[in-house]
Amino acid sequence: MSKLQDALVIRGNTVKNRIVMEPIFTFSFHGDDGHFYGKQHIEHYEARARGGAGLIILQATQCFGATDGTGQWTDYDKEILKAIAQKCHNYGVSVMMQLACGDSDINALTTGEVLSMQREMVSAAVTAFKLGFDGAEFHFAHGYTLCKFIDAAYNKRTDEFGNSAWNRTRILTGILPELRSKTGDRFMLGVRMGEFLPESRDGFEIAKLFEETGVDLINVSFGMKFPDGDVPEGFICGPMAYSGCRMKQAVDSIPVIAAGGLRTEEQVRFLIEHDYVDLAGIGTAFLADPAFGNAVLGSTPFTKCRGCERCLWFTDHTLCPARKK
Ligand SMILES: Cc1cc2nc3c(=O)[nH]c(=O)nc-3n(C[C@H](O)[C@H](O)[C@H](O)COP(=O)(O)O)c2cc1C
Ligand code: SF4
């Protein structure tokens, strides 16, 4: 039986406990002087590092601009990102960047445009490595560009990026050897994805291909649509977390994170202590209380996320009722 405070070694990195802060885009934060990132981001992530996360995965950062230092990759942004990585390390917390590729209609892209997207993905991950991050997670979830590549129903491409499952993963698997050679042995490469693409067996097949080609970590969310349906009796977490547990059974040899609606100590312990998954991914509960990790590890009280119908961090984090309390 695993314990919440057990360390987990992933590609030579010791993740000090089983609690992950999931990527959360900070819509209402402002960068410094017109830049995307700023000191507000440093404080935000440092508080969650101090607050007990074993692994922090930063909010989605767009790969575009990584090659020429524009977009979210200006020199100033990179200084902020470097500081975030450093602050996390000060608390012994492992830290990864989440890398995304916008929301394009992938069927309308030329092969050349896809190849150039791959160049940006390589540049972004290599930059993350140089800035001191322990890994990069590619955002293959939530219906965005990379998700559309792996979704069998959406992807109608007729070149080497479409048709077979192997081809649909090529957007990442095609650059994995280069990523490995440019980032070193200990740099974790992860994927956030869902089970249903559009059927559950498709998600498992894709995840296994990622596993076989050297992806280190699968962070389970949803793909083109949310996994609905019931969870088995006695399973005290929601359908998305259940999806993570099913994914763990499918891939088995690499660590899997399950997430979605994990707001109580009981739920977090349930997933880890039954060995359903390796890591518990926490989103809004970490927004409501930056010290959620320490509270769960130490069985102490914390400020609860209210589970608002639509999280106010999507629009204005200052209105979050947990924060105002
Ligand atoms: C405001 C907000 C922003 C989010 N941004 C991202 C993101 O950048 N990347 C991502 O993969 N998921 C993102 N998510 C999804 C979360 O990572 C998480 O999977 C989701 O909130 C469910 O977990 P929870 O119930 O613990 O919050 C976001 C969620 C919220 C509420
Ligand atoms: S706005 Fe609501 S759902 Fe979002 S973190 Fe705050 S309490 Fe939780």
Rg, Å, rounded: 19 Å
* The CATH topology: TIM Barrel
| Contiguous uncertain segments of 5+ residues | none
The residue-averaged pLDDT reads: 97
Biggest sheet record: 8 strands, parallel, barrel
Helix content: 25-40%
| CATH architecture name | Alpha-Beta Barrel
Bound molecules: flavin mononucleotide, iron/sulfur cluster
The overall strand count is: 10
Q: End-to-end distance, in Å?
A: 37 Å
Question: Count of helical segments?
Answer: 12
Structural class: alpha/beta
Q: What is the CATH H-level superfamily?
A: Aldolase class I
Number of domains as seen in the coordinates: 1
SS strand fraction:
15-25%
CATH class: Alpha Beta
H-E order: EEEHEHEHEHHHEHEHEHEHHH
Strand order of the largest sheet: 3-4-5-6-7-8-9-10
Give the overall form: globular
Protein name: 2,4-dienoyl-CoA reductase
Cofactor: FMN
GO molecular function, one term: NADP binding
Keywords: Flavoprotein, FMN, NADP, Oxidoreductase
What does this structure look like?
By secondary structure, the chain is an alpha/beta fold. The protein has a single domain (8-324), classed as Aldolase class I (TIM Barrel, Alpha-Beta Barrel), CATH 3.20.20. The protein has twelve helices and ten strands. The protein has helices at residues 39-50, 75-90, 111-130, 145-150, 165-173, 176-183, 200-212, 239-251, 265-273, 284-288, 292-298, 321-324, and strands spanning 8-10, 13-15, 19-21, 55-62, 94-100, 135-139, 188-194, 217-221, 256-259, 279-282. The strands form two sheets. The protein has an eight-stranded parallel β-barrel, surrounded by six helices. Helix 7 (200-212) links the parallel strand 7 and strand 8. Helix 1 (39-50) runs parallel beside helix 2 (75-90). The protein binds flavin mononucleotide (FMN) and iron/sulfur cluster (SF4). Flavin mononucleotide binds at residues 22-25, 59-60, 98, 139, 141, 192, 221, 259-262, 282-285, 311, 313-314. Flavin mononucleotide is lined by residues 22-25, 59-60, 98, 139, 141, 192, 221, 259-262, 282-285, 311, 313-314. InterPro entries: Aldolase_TIM, OxRdtase_FMN_N, YqjM-like. GO terms for molecular function: FMN binding; NADP binding; NADPH dehydrogenase activity.
